[in-house]
């Protein structure tokens, strides 16, 4: 397994719409393994292929406390969504930034697993938020798109400043440790 580099906002490649996977083959399974490795090593709870500059509809999640329940979704589609509520989100592509936004509180998702078999999953709470967040990545959308332009400007400036500090050899402030998503997210209501 290979740990891949995660693109960071406002990298324009994060705006690419991912292509469906035609066949779940060994190359796709390798991508799944690399996404999991990358997600776990960044302490994330979800990662979409878009974030590592691979524009295929593949995402991985693990919202378990023990970090031992990887979930794989290939060509995921939300087939039903219910309710609407606020939740706090972070993103490995927008490190150190958290904000509240509204999402469906319960979704039914259909996808292929790593063996290419179709499955459906009813998800609510944190898992529902994560699925919506990661599918957005495959569409080229980021959670900051739901915030005001003023907030996005502040976020861009802050990330820019942190990148510059890193380039100058400074440590990234601990609150921004790429870990965007180590239990960042308050369970949805
Ligand atoms: Ni994200």
Keywords:
single chain, 189 residues, alpha+beta, 5-stranded antiparallel β-sheet, two-stranded antiparallel ribbon, 3 helices, 26% helix, 23% strand, globular, disordered C terminus, binds nickel (II) ion
Your description of this structure?
With 189 residues, the chain is of the alpha+beta class. It is 26% helix and 23% strand. The chain contains 3 helices and 7 strands, in the order H-E-E-E-E-E-E-E-H-H. It has helices at 26-41, 125-138, 149-167; strands at 46-48, 58-61, 71-82, 85-89, 99-103, 106-112, 118-124. A 5-stranded antiparallel β-sheet has the order 1-2-3-6-7. It has a two-stranded antiparallel sheet with strand order 4-5. Strand 6 and strand 7 form a beta hairpin. It is globular, with a radius of gyration of 16 Å. Residues 174-183 and 185-189 have low confidence and may be disordered.
Concise synopsis of the structure shown:
This protein is an alpha+beta fold and 189 residues long.
Helix-strand layout with pairing:
Layout: H1 26-41, E1 46-48, E2 58-61, E3 71-82, E4 85-89, E5 99-103, E6 106-112, E7 118-124, H2 125-138, H3 149-167
Antiparallel strand pairs: 1-2, 2-3, 3-6, 4-5, 6-7
The protein binds nickel (II) ion.
Residues 91-93, 133, 137 line the site of nickel (II) ion.
Major sheet attributes: 5 strands, antiparallel
Mean pLDDT: 91
What structural class results from the helix and strand content?
A: alpha+beta
End-to-end distance: 36 Å
Which sequence of SSEs, written as H and E, runs from N to C?
A: HEEEEEEEHH
The count of helical stretches stands at 3
Q: Helicity range of the residues?
A: 25-40%
User: Which strand order spans the largest sheet, edge to edge or round the barrel?
Assistant: 1-2-3-6-7
| Percentage of residues in strands | 15-25%
Shape: globular
Bound molecules: nickel (II) ion
- Uncertain residue segments: 174-183, 185-189
Number of strands: 7
Instruction: Calculate Rg over CA atoms.
Output: 16 Å
